[in-house]
Amino acid sequence: MILGSHVSYKELGLLGCAQEASSYGANTFMFYTGAPQNTIRKNIDEKITLQAHAFMASHHLFLSQVICHAPYIINLANKANLEKWRFSISFLKQELKRCEALGVFKMVLHPGSAVNISKEEGLQNIVEGLNEVCKDYPVTILLETMAGKGNECGSTLEEIQYLLSHVEHPEKFGVCLDTCHLSDAGYDLHDFDAFLQKFDALIGIKKIGCVHLNDSKNALGSHKDRHENIGFGTIGFQTLNAICHHEKLKEVPKILETPYIGIDSDAKEKIYPPYLFEIEMFKSNTFYPDLLDKVRSHYKNA
Ligand code: FE
Ligand code: FE
Ligand code: ZN
What's the start-to-end Cα distance of the chain, in Å? Predict the structure, then answer.
């Protein structure tokens, strides 16, 4: 089982990420190269990157399974403002270059949002954008399945399939399944084998390069995109645990993007990552009804 969470890339870059992931008992992780909502990025420190690789090698972390997430301000669907579209493309190229420098070869990307245009047009713009970025980098771009908030492209398997079948180099692309997004988009994951069968017929299981394992705060088909802690949402522990341990997804990294937990339910100033215990739940196939308390008491005095 390849399992980790989103971690933060701060002063120590990739080394900080690896140390944080290790503190959760993870064997992989996902990071943004800076704040996901902006494009301010520090240069990559080669020495720290080498230290990170060494740390990972000695702490059961698989570099080949590490995921970088592109910032969500990149929107390849929207070409109305050509300058912005060009900026998305050039920034994505820089991100791919950074990945290569870090030794990371999988990047998750939100396909884009069709603002004031039809989805068909949006999808066409995304294909064009993807054709421009993918060529020069040895990084696989994983298109994330979206919840269908607003006019998000990639909220149906057919749209993902459209993108993968229209890009010039389909071998450079794969898919990231986000369980919260899939459920919010209307895919019932409780019969996950039926879902996988459908996915396989349309796209091919081999294309799955990452799974975002999240519970959802909202009902099936709600198009909301609000992640919930594992076992506390509408998908539930049993289903998420079955996906986590699924034989056909054994080689695929699973990444938790569940919300941090407040020290008490209304104090927002101190929040703690749930990942150590959520990972433990999956490793032991056991739901913790007292997850929130476990997290609070673990970090309170740390
Ligand atoms: Fe995402
Ligand atoms: Fe996600
Ligand atoms: Zn989401």
Answer: 29
